[in-house]
Amino acid sequence: MAKRIHDLLGLPVDEVVVNECLTLKQFLWASQLAGVASFLLVTALLGLVAFVGGRRWLRAIKGGAARTDGRTPGKLAPNRFHEAAWIVGDKHEIADDVWIGAFCVIDAAHDRLVLAPGVVVASGAHIYTHSSVARTATCGAAPIEHAPTHVGPHASICANATVLMGCDVQERAVVAAGAVVPEHTVVPRDCVVAGVPARIVRRARPSKLRSGETRSSCGCAIAPDGKAIDMVCGEHEV
Ligand SMILES: CC(C)(COP(=O)(O)OP(=O)(O)OC[C@H]1O[C@@H](n2cnc3c(N)ncnc32)[C@H](O)[C@@H]1OP(=O)(O)O)[C@@H](O)C(=O)NCCC(=O)NCCS
Q1: Chain-centre distance for alpha carbon 152
Q2: What is the mean pLDDT of residues 169-195?
Q3: What angle do CA 165, 68, 89 make, to 5 degrees?
Q4: Could you tell me what percent of the chain has a pLDDT over 70?
Q5: Closest-lying ligand 1 atom to the alpha carbon of residue 159
Q6: Nearest-CA residue for atom 13 of ligand 1
Q7: Nearest residue CA, atom 38 of ligand 1?
């Protein structure tokens, strides 16, 4: 080793140089050791950072904080409607052909909820049978209020509408997108309600069929091309 270093440096070999080269040899060994130690340290630090960051990332993907109601964090309770709809509780009577879209909250945990045949609950709509406002405002002294909610046959609860506890949305009524139906409201059959709070914007009225028009089984006028002529059906005043 000493000889080779000599050759490299082009120096004569003598006792002193050999000793110096031995020192150099030791220095090289020490450098190698320090290099390996630094490499291991940096690798360990990078591994630690990746481990901690990766766990956070996984937690974020899974949905963060733990959820209640016996569900696995990040997973919604199974239901026979859209997988991202949340049907809470089992006090419900939901007809087989009811359609419930994504991101709906259907509260059947506190009181009876009926969704009659042909009902459509569009994405993001919420239907409640309870209110915790009184309990919250009384610092827990009052109980959670609840009342049965009913949605009649072929009624539509449009996208992002909210039907609060105790409402009776009657047959073929339409709750427009984004409307809020206040607690204990009766939405008459064949009416369209819209806004916050929801108000009747259209109601059924007598209508004569024009040439080529027919009627659906529930009384709506249908154009020759099969489209509904009006959102409200029937031939009666409400
Ligand atoms: C309610 C709805 C069906 C329209 O019904 P329509 O009988 O054709 O009503 P019109 O468009 O003639 O509107 C009637 C009145 O209600 C108002 N209105 C209608 N929809 C409204 C809404 N979502 N919010 C507030 N006001 C609304 C209109 O401005 C109009 O008011 P005006 O008479 O003062 O001008 C429609 O507006 C709606 O909300 N569709 C949502 C469909 C949906 O959720 N799709 C998602 C997939 S299913």
Answers
A1: 26
A2: 95
A3: 40
A4: 75
A5: 44
A6: 201
A7: 176
- CB-ligand 1 contact for 155 (6 Å cutoff): no
With a 6 Å cutoff on the Cβ, whether 200 touches ligand 1 is no
Q: Would the CB of 180 count as within 6 Å of ligand 1?
A: no
| DSSP element (H, E) containing 146 | strand 145-146
Average pLDDT score over residue span 146-168: 97
Is the pLDDT reported for residue 16 higher than 60?
no
pLDDT at 98: 96
- Cα separation, 94 vs 172, in Å, equals 16
Please check whether residue 108 is in contact with residue 81, taking contact to mean a CB–CB distance below 8 angstroms.
Answer: no
Pocket test for ligand 1, best of 119, 181, 192 (most atoms within 8 A of CB): 192
- Whole-prediction pTM value? 0.70
Residue 173 CA to residue 181 CA, distance in Å, equals: 12
Residue type, 160: N
Residue 123 clears pLDDT 90, i.e. is over it: yes
Rounded CA-CA distance 25/37 in Å is 18
Regarding the beta carbon of 231 and ligand 1, being less than 6 Å apart is answered: yes
